[in-house]
Amino acid sequence: MMGRRYRRNNNLGSVVTDVVRVASRLPWWGALLVGLFAYFLIYIGLGGYLEGQLAAQEGSQFYPILEARYGRLIRLTAWVGNACLIVGAFFAIRNHFFGANAQRTEKGIAGIVAKILGRRID
Question: Where are the alpha helices (H) located in 24-62, listed in sequence order?
């Protein structure tokens, strides 16, 4: 009997792996909704919140430090949000035609390609 292999990562990049895992098991419309929800939550919600926090500190003497830190996080949320949207769209198309039975290698390839394309879109 094989045990589950689950690694817990405490970074935002592991969200893409989680979205791949969930979207690959859902029907096409569920995969699309998961991708859209993750995109809106991460890129629009978290990224917009961080941009608002940065804009509120514009006159502060610590603004350059905050800009460097928040700017990096804002770019990260854009990358992860775009990758989640790509994963959702891919599995929506794939699951529509082939059903929700993706193999482990297919999930891995989809996650890697989504991360690469997510960086290119940004």
Answer: 28-39, 47-56
